[in-house]
Amino acid sequence: xxxxxxxxxxFLAHAKALGHDAARLLAGAEELRDFGLPxxxxxRVFSTADDASRARRADHFFNPTIAARRRLGQxxxxxxxAGVFAGMPVAQSDLxxxxxxxxFPVRASSELVRRIPAGTEWDVSARPHDWGREYRxxxxxxxxxxxxxxxxxxxxxxxxxxxxxxxxxxxxxGEDDPEGWQIGVLATPFSVDPGIGPDDGAPGxxxxxxxxxxxxxxxxxxxxxxxxxxxxxxxEDAVDGTPGGGGTDATNGGPGRTGGAAKIAEITLxxxxxxxTILAAGGDGGHGGAGGRGGDxxxxxxxxxxxxxxxxxxxxGAGGRGGAGGAGGVGGRGGHGGLASNVYVxxxxxxxxxxxxxPLPSRGGAGGRGGPGGRAGASGVGAPPGIPGRTGEDGAPGxxxxxxxxxxxxxxxxxxxxxxxxxxxxGVSHAEQ
Length: 433
Prior knowledge:
Layout: H1 5-17, H2 22-26, E1 31-37, H3 51-60, H4 64-67, H5 73-86, H6 92-98, E2 104-116, E3 121-123, E4 140-150, E5 155-159, E6 162-172, E7 183-186, E8 220-222, E9 229-232, E10 265-269, E11 272-273, E12 276-281, E13 307-309, E14 312-314, E15 343-346, E16 355-360, E17 406-408, E18 411-413
Parallel strand pairs: 2-4, 3-5, 4-6, 5-7, 6-10, 6-11, 7-12, 10-15, 12-16, 15-17
Antiparallel strand pairs: 1-2, 8-9, 13-14, 17-18
Helix pairs in contact: 5-6
């Protein structure tokens, strides 16, 4: 199971480029170093690609998925990454745009042997706060391993870092599982859009209920030998009940946030025992919040009762109409699926049949349900019925986004049509901020 002299030499050479101590590594220690990259082109030292490989990557780097976002802020990152990963020229304006991120945070680790126990996940992700940076800033994560041993159900995962992985030897233990995966290039576990707050939109607030109308003022009479005699009259319109107050409209549900972003990655496996599946996916968008419920209309007041006197009958007052219900809030728009970048996997051609790549699209979040309208208030006797509030419209769903473009030995790989996948188990819950 030990490395050959050639493999050990290659492992130690990469470790030296990362500033790691060879003696400690050969003694079984893990070397971990955080530092800043003073210029973007210095990142080429982390890559195993030669000039021929970079030239092949240049032919496909700006594939439709990457080219479609060239006008976004991500487009500047893409063009700068094309210089590091594909040897393409970078315009000075793009370098100037990235200058504020320098020195670029880097976490590099080397380990002669790493065994991931059965059913566990080794998450190698690094977060910008370790460098005092804003949480959405990019971080480069470099992992150099002599022998990587994957027990059954074990996984190596990176979430939202620019990623370089070099393994001299990968040993996959246990039976092959065509529906499983062992290495995951996943999204940041939080949205990187300009918003704040949780991934799912907040529900709208319910409207307030309308107040009840007042009953009409009753006339008063006293009995006499001739019959009831009016002793208190009121204005003609005062005998009518007043309308109930209208319920207020609910507020709209909040929009879901854009899913986390999966960043560019280069994975180099020099020798493989068993089969290895590498999965890459952006984060799913958050769901829109439900619209609030409209406030109920207030009850209309009753009219004063009719009154018979010896001079004749005085009619009853009119009942007040029930208040209108408030409108339900509109459901929040679902968040769009997260962006994803190119993923390059390199293995000797003899091991290509043992590698499966699984690029998966990111899903847009569901739109929030529109809130129900408020109920109309009950009307006073004889008054027309009140008007119920209208139901809010459902929010629009977020857009799905394409799977990360994946390349095996610099050849594009088509996404699978029906790879079974449960997003709840992939570790991109967007819970962190």
